[in-house]
Design goal:
Helix content is 42%, strand content 15%. It is of the alpha/beta class and 356 residues long. The chain has a domain of 189 residues: Rossmann fold (3-Layer(aba) Sandwich). About 2% of the residues have low confidence. Bound molecules: adenosine-5'-diphosphate and magnesium ion. Magnesium ion (MG) binds next to helix 1.
């Protein structure tokens, strides 16, 4: 039977590596699993992971712009506009009219990787999406809030129906702010990949993440009922569980940081505390972690600093597996990439995808 796995890469903090991780994890996962279909849905208006997937640098930027400016954009915005303007009873649009096969644009990419491209118009469109979600329910059969929030979840099902013989793995890139399109991204996922850095704001952001997903205890007497957490619970919707926490770029602070230090002590402490209080906020393992070190071993992975290899991979839209050592042109400069460093980066990405 076909399986569908849905990963959302999210943290309520910018610049922690969400798009970088989406790009490398989805690409490597597709390379390593040629019999599965992998789909990236870019629900961040900055469209950074889309640009990298579609060739990086100005080439990637141009292709994203081209997809966004078609009469009916072949992007998350085009798809969402079509569904919303069709209304809740309308048949779903064909996902192939919107998703692009990444290899058709960027020959470095595996054949089994699709992309529903990010689009800057998510931002101006947000009030219309909120309006549709908050419309009153006119018949008992249609709950506008639930229908709108499940648009991308339903898209994944429509995409999977196109490949009935293959397993499907979806990676969703997000914006840090908890805007309506981030709510749609969260609602489309089952498992969270949460990148964190070593700083204090990462610890604070992980606290915010629990409140946004599950609500404050006790709930605020007024705002409590307005939250995503309260609404999602009232409609019986799945709230994704934390599956893996990626300690990103910790090596920039601590040269020898190994897997054990994948999380700063403070962040690990906050997360382990939440795990003990609410194990169901995390995906299940065979056994419960009994202490913080077991918890780190089960849920955390370190992603080393990619240094120049990361800059070149993003600029040229190349998977880390297709980056031999040598000199590469980046913004008129010749940048040297060392093959040993690339091998280390590949090992780090492989360690992450081995946890998926
Ligand atoms: N492991 C890494 N090694 C080197 N640079 C990284 C790494 N992760 C992220 N970066 C860089 O940090 C910046 C922010 O990363 P990005 O993925 O755009 O974060 P987000 O999507 O969370 O805002 C980018 O310039 C990116 O190239
Ligand atoms: Mg991003």
């Amino acid at each position: 039977m076909q399986t569908i796995e849905r990963y959302v890469v999210w943290n309520n903090k910018g610049g922690v590596g969400k798009s970088t991780i989406t790009f490398h994890a989805a690409t490597r996962y597709a390379e390593e699993h040629p019999h599965k279909q992998v789909l990236v849905i870019d629900l961040c208006p900055q469209a950074n992971s889309s640009m990298m997937l579609l060739g990086g640098g100005t080439a990637g930027e141009q292709t994203v712009l081209q997809l966004c400016t078609e009469a009916i954009p072949r992007t998350v915005v085009g798809y969402m506009s079509t569904v919303i303007s069709g209304g809740p009873g309308a048949p779903l649009p064909d996902p192939f009219d919107y998703a692009v096969q990444v290899a058709s644009v960027n020959s470095n990419m595996p054949q089994n990787l699709g992309l529903l491209c990010g689009d800057g118009n998510l931002e101006p469109m947000a009030p219309a999406v909120s309006g549709a979600a908050n419309a009153p329910s006119l018949t008992p059969l249609v709950q506008p809030w639930k229908w709108v929030h499940l648009i991308f979840r339903d898209l994944v099902s429509a995409f999977a129906a196109k490949f009935p013989q293959q397993d499907i793995v979806v990676f969703i890139d997000t914006n840090p702010s908890f805007s309506i399109y981030t709510e749609l991204a969260i609602s489309a996922g089952d498992k969270l990949i949460v990148p964190v850095n070593a700083d204090d704001s990462s610890r604070v952001a992980t606290n915010a993440l629990f409140i946004l997903l599950h609500g404050q205890v006790p709930p605020h007497p007024i705002y409590g009922a307005w939250t995503y957490a309260a609404k999602a619970a009232s409609f019986g919707m799945i709230v994704p569980q934390i599956h893996v926490i990626v300690g990103n770029r910790l090596t920039q602070y601590d040269g020898a940081a190994g897997a054990f230090s994948a999380l700063s002590d403070a962040t690990a402490d906050t997360l382990f505390h939440a795990y003990r209080a609410n194990p169901s906020y995390f995906t299940p393992r065979y056994v419960m972690a009994q202490n913080i070190n077991e918890f780190r071993g089960m849920f955390a992975v370190a992603l080393r600093d990619f240094n120049t290899a990361g800059v070149v991979a993003a600029h040229l839209g190349r998977p880390i597996s297709k980056l031999p050592g040598g000199y590469y042109p980046v913004h008129g400069h010749s940048i040297q990439v060392n093959s040993d460093r690339v091998a280390e980066c590949r090992k780090a990405v492989d360690a992450l995808i081995s946890m998926l």
